[in-house]
Amino acid sequence: MGSLHQVLTQINGVLLGKHDQVRLAVTCLVAGGHLLIEDFPGVGKTTLAEALARSFGLAFRRVHFTSDLLPADLSGLRLFDQQLGQFRFEPGPLFSQVLLADEINRASPRCQSALLEAMAAGRVSVDGTSHELPKPFCVIATQNGLDQAGTSPLPESQLDRFAMRLSLGFPPRQAEAALLAGKATALDGLAAVIAAEELVELQQQASRVACEPPLLDYVLDLLAASRQGGLATGTPLSPRAGCGLVAAAQAWALLEERSYVVPADVQAVFAAVAEHRLDGGRPAQEPGGYSRQLLAAVEAIR
Amino acid sequence: MIEPLARRLQILSLSLLALQLLGSDWASPLCWGSLTLVVMASLKLAKAQRPADLRRGLLAQLIALGVLAGLNPNLGPGLVQAATGLVLVAALLAQESGGGGNLRQMLNRSVQLLVVCLPLLVLLFLFIPRLGPPWPQAELGRGRTGLSEQLDPGAIAQLALDPSPALRISPAQEQDLPPADQRYWRVRVLDRFDGQRWRAAPAQGPAQAWAPPAPAPPGAAQQLWLVEPSPLSALPWGGSGVPLNPQITSTAKGELLGPWQTRVRRSYGLAASNQPPAWQRQAPARSDLDFAAGSNPQLEALAEGWRQQLAPAQRLAAAQALFQGQPFRYTLQPPPLGDVAPLDQFLFASRAGFCEHFASAFTGLMRAAAVPARVVVGYQGGSWVPANLWGRGYLEVLQQDAHAWSEVWLADQGWVRIDPTAWVAPARIQAGLRSGLAGQWADLGLLSQGLPWLRPLTRSWTNLDLAWNQLLRYDQFSQDQLMQRWLGPFRSWQGLVLVLGLALALALAVWILGLLRPTPRQEQQRRRLDRSLSRLAPLNLVPQPGESLPAFCRRAAAQLPELAPGLERLQTSYERLRFAPRGQERARALELARSLGAADRELAAAASRLGRRPVERLQSPEPP
Question: Is A257 touching B (CB cutoff 8 A)?
Answer without folding.
Answer: no
